[in-house]
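Quick one, T. Sequence first:
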Amino acid sequence: MPEFAKMNYFGHERALPNWFWTGETKMNCLSKSIKQSLEHAYAHHIQRLMVTGNFALLAGIHPDALDEWYLGIYIDAIEWVEITNTRGMSQFADGGIVGTKPYVSSANYIQKMGNYCSNCVYEYGKKTGEKACPFNSLYWRFYEVNRPLLEKNPRIGMMYVTLNKMSDTHKKELFEQAEKYLSGIESL
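Structure tokens:
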């Protein structure tokens, strides 16, 4: 500190979507986690790290915005603890000082860790097309965009093996889907 609080390893610049303050999103996992957080000033680890934090990292939200949100809504958020959890673990904004890899996932993990997906507008098993869960295409876009920073990380090498095996057509569809979601982030 104070340098740690300014770290932004991926250079993320996107603003926090307005629905982080209302929970009014069609993504059921985010809607439920955010509304619970706003109502009770609390969320459990999976909601913080693998729902709200995961989305923010995949979508390229500026770490400052997520820091401010966590500090502003969680009753147990004390800056000296929250900053290392947000910058280090949740957003990997420190480039690996706290954690050894970014904690990102597709919809499959979220589906396994909770009951959000069964009542969602989006289909967790769909990667592209109408009603495809945004977490899926954003996940693969994240790895592609950050390839120069992450490809040599031994903890996530398998993701690049999988990505490299995908056809160019499939990758193009995934990345176009992700860009569509990012350009319309307020309407997700």
